[in-house]
Queue: 3 jobs
Job 1
Amino acid sequence: MSLQHCPVVTAEGHVLIFDNGYGCNFSGSNRHSRGEYKIVGLDVEQIWEYGKERGEDFFSPITSEVQYIEES
């Protein structure tokens, strides 16, 4: 992660973040903008990500935000 911001804590206690991806050595298909992480003590597990599968055209390298929307 690099230049992550806009943290949102979910009902499960996970953290959603927006990640600009600058400062990392990733390019093209290795970038993604949103992620959900389970944090327990010093252990971090990535639960979900969005953007990587949509390619670089969908990646946002500048300020944005993340929002959890419940399924209906």
Job 2
Amino acid sequence: MSRPFPKASNLAVVAGVALAVLGATAAVARAASSRANCVEVRTEAPYRNAGYDHIVHLTNDCGVAVSCTVTTDVNPEPTTVEVAAGEAVDVLTWRGSPAWEFAATVECRYGAAP
């Protein structure tokens, strides 16, 4: 007796899950490769007066200075900052935003900005 083939809908679900997992893994790899591994990035959106301030905290645990370019989904205009070895820098990307949530993209390179 032959075994019936799985339903096409089941195969589509399995394929969709596999693609989602592979896509998420690729996104994580891209994010990690675009920033020096020794730079910690943290975001914060404290409420102050007329709205939320969007702040990106950068901590350089590298042995050398890094140059980091910061953009967000709210403010795509790039801001470049130098972070000395062992130092931390806060980048204010937006003041008084109505949005209490934002996503930052940070790219850091060893050495000074060109």
Job 3
Amino acid sequence: MPTPTDAHQSANSLVAAVHKCCNTPNSHHLKQRKSVHWWTPETSRLRKESNYLRRTFQRKRKKLGAAASIMEAHNAKNKDGISASH
């Protein structure tokens, strides 16, 4: 049967191990990516616009349902004169 001293030593060892794990820096954080050499203000603007339109579409699809969103996108393409081959 363990003695109280053994229990205290085990508890202290466990606490030390937990502290060590908690104080170890996380290597799971992603490093910030550098801007690619071909990235321009124009591509940045287009990316922001694309993200905005995608989020708008996703919100409408969630609110109206998939069929209504597909029909709205189809009508918008026809209105703008965009052919289906694009």
